[in-house]
Amino acid sequence: MSDQVQKTYTLYVKGMHCKACILMIESELMDVEGVSRATPSLTTHTVEVSGDFGWRTSEEVARELSHVIERHGYTLSVEKFEHEKNWSEFTVAIPIAIGFAVLFVLLQKLGIVNLINTSNVSYGTAFMIGVIASLSTCMAVVGGLVLSMSATFAREGDKVRPQILFHAGRIVSFFILGGIIGALGSAFTLGPTGTFVLGFLVGVVMLILGINLLDVFPWAKRFQPSMPKFLGKHALGVSELNHWLTPLLVGVATFFLPCGFTQAMQLYSLTTGSFLAGGLTMLSFALGTLPVLALIGFSSFSIKNSSKAGIFFKSAGLIVILFALFNITNSLVVIGVIQPVFNF
Questions:
Q1: DSSP 8-class letter at 121
Q2: Statement: residue 53 has pLDDT above 80
Q3: Which of 93, 95, 181, 287 is the S-S candidate for 269 at Cβ 3.0 to 4.6 Å?
Q4: 315-318: long-range contacts (C-beta < 8 A, 24 or more apart)?
């Protein structure tokens, strides 16, 4: 590619929510012939694209590149998108979240489930967080991998086996790697203060995730934590290996992809100080994500493309905020800073 025909365009991105989006957009655009560099920015909601685009205008480039990433819920334009907060969606989202909270407390009172404990996150809670995570924008990279992998192997006439290998690799690796994290917590012999700090941090991370799901405070997105970018890139690179074991390896690699929910559960696993407890926590989380990820693989389902996506994400955001507040409050109760607030 000649340097003389290299052009650089700054395009605005609609649909970017978290650092996982950055990784997905960069990976997809870099696979486009003629593109030599793609640098997305969550702060400005733009992507700077360099490459050989011939005599095409910036508008034509934006349209062509949009076709590449639109299946993941993103759109490119030369003009800045107006951020639509859609406050009216809260009129539906708030009752849904309140209904969930009432059901949550009712089941707890009846002893049918034990989702909340004053000292720890139960496996039921981890499972519920997994369900919410699988439907959220934070799983964009994992969902994108599943879609790409499904399409690739389906063209070769093999659709079921790759899905089984992917989910088996994901579930087994989450248990083993979660167990290792838990065992590391034991090696560090976390005292009450250390356990409180990590537990409180889990609550803060979830609070940020919940606020971001509401999609009304764009400034909060820059505070969302993620895995180091090089780990995410290497994890995505595994999907490009051409081998029958690739789906299994991709399933294992998803443990290292930038999803705030996954990191929150990883942090909590560290506080357990136990291989079994850490492993079961991450296993419960992975099982929570299984139904939707399996649905994505077999039917190309995507909540982001639904007309009700805004209502769903706001409802999910409010529910995650409730989980976060429960966790923060319970952490403060455990070390005696405040008296018990929720007597479930």
A1: B
A2: yes
A3: 181
A4: 315/92, 315/93, 315/96, 315/97, 315/100, 316/132, 316/135, 316/136, 316/213, 317/93, 317/210, 317/211, 317/212, 317/213, 317/214, 317/215, 318/93, 318/94, 318/96, 318/97, 318/210, 318/214
The total domain count for the chain is 2
Contact 278, 270 (CB under 8 A): yes
Strands 75-77 and 35-41: unpaired
Which of 147, 144, 178 is CA-nearest to residue 163? 147
Which CATH number belongs to the domain containing residue 9 in this structure?
3.30.70.100
The β-bridge partners of 75 are 14
Q: Which two tokens stand for residue 161?
A: 């086996």
Q: Which residues contact 285 (CB under 8 A, 6 or more apart)?
A: 126, 127, 129, 130, 133, 174, 261, 262, 265
Are 52 and 34 in contact by the 8 Å Cβ rule? The answer is: yes
Give the rounded distance of the alpha carbon of 164 from its chain centre: 21
Q: What domain range includes position 11?
A: 3-77
Q: Show the DSSP H helices in 254-308 as ranges.
A: 260-272, 275-299
Q: Please check whether residues 143 and 197 belong to one and the same domain.
A: yes
Q: Which residues contact 307 (CB under 8 A, 6 or more apart)?
A: none
**Contact yes or no for 257/232 (Cβ under 8 A):** yes
pLDDT in tens, 140-178: 667 666 766 665 565 555 667 878 888 999 999 999 999
Distances (CA, A) of 177 to 7, 91, 127, 220: 44, 41, 17, 30
In tens, the pLDDT along 189-245 reads 666 777 677 778 878 888 887 888 787 877 776 676 655 555 555 555 555 555 567
Domain assignment present for residue 344? The answer is no
- What does the alpha-carbon distance between residue 77 and residue 155 come to, in Å, rounded to a whole number? 31
Amino acid at 146: V
